[in-house]
TrEMBL record:
Protein encoded by which gene: glpA/glpD
Gene3D superfamilies reported in the protein's UniProt record: FAD/NAD(P)-binding domain (3.50.50.60)
Name listed for the protein in its UniProt record: Partial glycerol-3-phosphate dehydrogenase
InterPro entries: FAD/NAD-bd_sf (IPR036188)
Organism phylogeny: Bacteria, Pseudomonadati, Verrucomicrobiota, Methylacidimicrobium
Keyword Oxidoreductase: yes
GO molecular function: glycerol-3-phosphate dehydrogenase (quinone) activity
The keyword Acyltransferase appears for this protein: no
Enzyme Commission number(s): 1.1.5.3
Keyword field: Oxidoreductase
Species: Methylacidimicrobium cyclopophantes
Domain of life: Bacteria
Length: 41
């Protein structure tokens, strides 16, 4: 990543994601699949 790209990402007011899954087990996978199916990032 270039310095310019990092600065442009830091200045972007929109959050990089809509949904955060903590944990990668069966429940985390199900939550991630459901969120992706609903259009969340």
């Amino acid at each position: 990543m270039t310095r310019e790209r990092a600065l442009s990402l830091a200045a972007d007011p929109s959050p990089p994601w809509d949904f955060l899954v903590v944990g990668g087990g069966a429940s985390g996978l199900g939550a991630a699949v459901e969120a992706a199916g609903r259009g969340y990032r």
